[in-house]
Amino acid sequence: MRDFKTTRAPEPNTKWMRLRVKLLAGFFVCLLMAAFGRAVFLQVVERDKLRGMAQDQYVRQIEIPARRGDIFDRRGSPLAQSVEVDSIWVDPSLLPDVKDTARALARTLKLDPNDVLNRLTRGRRFAWVKRQVTPREVEAVKALGLPGFGFTKEPKRFYPQRELGAHVVGMVGLDGHGLEGLEMAFEDELSGQNSRLSGFRDAKGRKLLMTGAPDTQDRQGATVTLTLDRHLQYVAEKALSRAVVDAQATAGMAIVMDPLTGELLAIANEPRFNPNAPEKQARAGMRNRAALDAIEPGSTMKSFVVAAALEQKVIKPEDSFFCENGSWRVGKHTIHDTHEHGWLTPKGVLQVSSNICSAKIAQLLGRERFVKSYRDFGFGERTGLALPGESRGSIPFPKAEVSLATQAFGQGMTATAVQMAAAWSALANGGVLMRPYLVSKVVDPDGVVLLENRPTEVRRVVSPQTARTVVSMLESVVVKGGTATKAAMEDYRVAGKTGTAQKVDPVAGGYSDKRIASFVGVLPAENPRAVILVIVDEPKTDVYGGTVAAPAFKEIATAAMAHLAVPPSREVPLPSSAVLAAAVPAPAAKAVAARAVVEEVVTENVEPGSVRVPDVMGQAGREAVTKLLSAALEPQLSGSGRVVAQTPAAGSLVEKGARVTLELATRQ
After folding, report:
1. How far apart are CA 570 and CA 578, in angstroms?
2. DSSP run (H or E) holding 303
3. pLDDT of 41 strictly over 90
4. Can you give the C-alpha Rg of the chain in angstroms?
5. pLDDT value at position 535?
6. Do 412 and 355 touch, CB atoms closer than 8 A?
7. 147-151, 270-274, 620-624: which has the minimum mean pLDDT?
8. Alpha carbons 183 and 96: distance in angstroms, whole number
9. How far is it, in rounded angstroms, from Cα 384 to Cα 439?
10. Residue 61's pLDDT band (boundaries 50, 70, 90)?
């Protein structure tokens, strides 16, 4: 029997089955291609974005400021350093109760609760709790046992000398950026390279790993070395502070400068401030007025008028000028001297500080040459100390006769204290103006010198003969008959000039009854090694520089000459009794006794309230301290071992209670 099923022809829908299979295969291929394309898009195109989103979930990064470079004085004493301290941060998203935590933190760290709550509320994943904290505060926060807290090391600026040189060094803010002084001027060099501290956590927010802070040497700033001398800075600040207090003044400035190099050895300002606690100080008291502010200098400018007139040969040292017996009418104005004087030579004009005769010499010099001479001495242009905000001063062209007259004695023009010291250094340096500088060098952590200043001549202002002549004339200012007898020194020849300038009243206009008293001196006069300027602002007990500023000059000069080891200009004469005792021949066995007699006679003639510094070289620290205390002196030790250096030097005449710095070292 025939099977009809086996002979049945294929149904026509078979080809449609094949088509459906192909379509389905194509559909799955497209899905696969789409998935592959999406994977490529996510892994290649969106890779950085997705990686950042992922890291935001499990990585925390805190930017750690670099360790600021140190600032040293010329002898390597630190004026500003950075130390590593703890700072506390928190992840607010991990806190069980933000308000309760804020109250607990405020109570523990003695902070404002509202301020803490605001910081924790603003920060979603990170917020500073308190920066630069003490170890005790760290332990107190850990004792709270709350989650989400982290502790990291940050550099904190520390000023080991406290107020010493604070106006020059400046200070930094809480964020580590310079706000004043050299800290601000050399922000880029001192700041170094910031780094980041990374931390990881799991899906539940638990900390798995916190990397330690990177090596501080890898992120340290450059080192800045100054021309300041810590000892001279201390002496200048101490003497200036005493002068301001004694004169019941509002402020003061003092500068010590090396006239041969232009190095600023001390820049003092009063009132002082402690950069370790700037929040307790008035912001106005932080300004370095000695380097930045311009004032009317007064009669100290008469020296440059005489020098310019001698250089231009419009006057001679032996010429005489009539000083009008103390009153001289110029146009509608009358110029006065403090005392009545008749005929005076240029030396006499400087000695008694005659305004009238200075104005007459300026008239002979002429307006153009007068202004040019001031500018040649460096007035009216910035000195280039690298300090932000330095004033250039002002030398207006004197169109009126009275303007020429007043500028001849330092009124109607302005200058900074540094400009004045630099101009006087030109007289002391044989007529050559040196560029004053404060920063000796800047060196990065690798030893590469980024900046180095060296003595630089600006220009020759007057001839060496003119400079010597004027300095010689100025020696008469500190002798009997001069205006600054209180600046005279027993061992050294001093050339100087007083200044008493009226202050402008910015509200009422014109000049007020307030004064600026000053004295600037060069010593030793025969071979100058230092120029010292002292300015006292608004003294009330007396207004004259010879009375108010000259004693501070003498105190600074005495310490400076001993510290710089400058030989005396002249030998101090012994009393006649001492000379006779020394001249009598004594037996060898009694030689020691004879020497003791001479020393005793000399000691008996020391001024009341003064004492000579004993010689403690080579003695142990304890022995040296005992000897200094017995002499009514204050010892200050540096190092350990035996005394290898002492300042002031042995035999120097100082006030009782003065500080004597001893450097100790262990002999090898």
Report:
1. 18
2. helix 302-311
3. no
4. 38
5. 96
6. no
7. 620-624
8. 42
9. 11
10. low
Determine the residue type at 89.
Answer: W
499 near 410, Cβ under 8 Å? yes
Q: Rounded distance, CA 172 to CA 152, Å?
A: 20
Q: By CB neighbour count within 10 A (0-12 exposed, 13-18 middle, 19+ buried), where does 571 fall? A: exposed
Per the listing, tokens 């605001």 go with 118
Report how far apart, in Å, the C-alpha atoms of 79 and of each of 22, 432, 452, 663 are.
Answer: 85, 32, 19, 18
- Identify which has the larger pLDDT, 218 or 326: 326
How is residue 186 written in tokens?
């050399």
- What is the pTM for the complete model shown? 0.72
| Residues in the chain, overall count | 668
Q: Which of 5-19, 31-45, 172-186, 446-460 has the highest mean pLDDT?
A: 446-460
- Bridging pattern class, strands 294-295 and 415-416: antiparallel
Tell me if residue 421 falls in helix, strand or coil: helix
Would you give the end-to-end CA distance of the chain in angstroms?
131
Token pair of 302, please?
A: 């008469």
CB distance 54 to 208 below 8 Å: no
Helix (H) or strand (E) holding 602: helix 591-604
From 72-81, 357-366, 385-394, the region with the lowest mean pLDDT: 385-394
453 φ, ψ to 5°? -100, 140
The answer, yes or no, to whether residue 4 has pLDDT greater than 60, is no
Residue 300 corresponds to which tokens in the numbers above?
Answer: 């100290």
Q: What is the amino acid identity at position 416?
A: T
Structure tokens at 67: 């360790």
Task: Please give the positions annotated as active site.
Answer: 299
More confident residue, 417 or 280: 417
* Residue 421 near residue 520, CB atoms below 8 Å: yes
Give helix then strand counts, H and E, for the chain. Answer: 22, 30
Contact 67, 176 (CB under 8 A): no
**pLDDT reported for residue 54:** 67
Q: Give strand pairing partners of 257.
A: 264, 531
Residues 6+ apart with CB under 8 A from 227: 74, 263, 264, 265, 437, 438, 439, 440
For 39, the enclosing helix (H) or strand (E) is helix 14-40
Helices 135-142 and 98-109: crossing angle in degrees, nearest 10, is 150
DSSP helix/strand/coil, 543: coil
372 CB neighbour count, 10 Å cutoff: 15
Helix boundaries (H) for 124-180 = 135-142, 166-169
The sign of the CA dihedral 570, 572, 574, 576 is positive
**Cα 244 from chain centre:** 20
Omega before 214 within 30 of 0, i.e. cis = no
Of 354, 367, 249, the closest CA to residue 314 belongs to 367
- Alpha helix stretches (DSSP H) within 326-379: 346-352, 355-365, 367-376
CB-CB contact of 312 with 365 (8 Å): yes
Phi-psi region of 410 (alpha: psi -120 to 50; beta: other; left: phi over 0): left
Q: What is the pLDDT of residues 639-656, one digit of tens each?
A: 667 887 888 887 777 777
3-state helix, strand, coil in the chain (%, to 5): 40, 25, 35
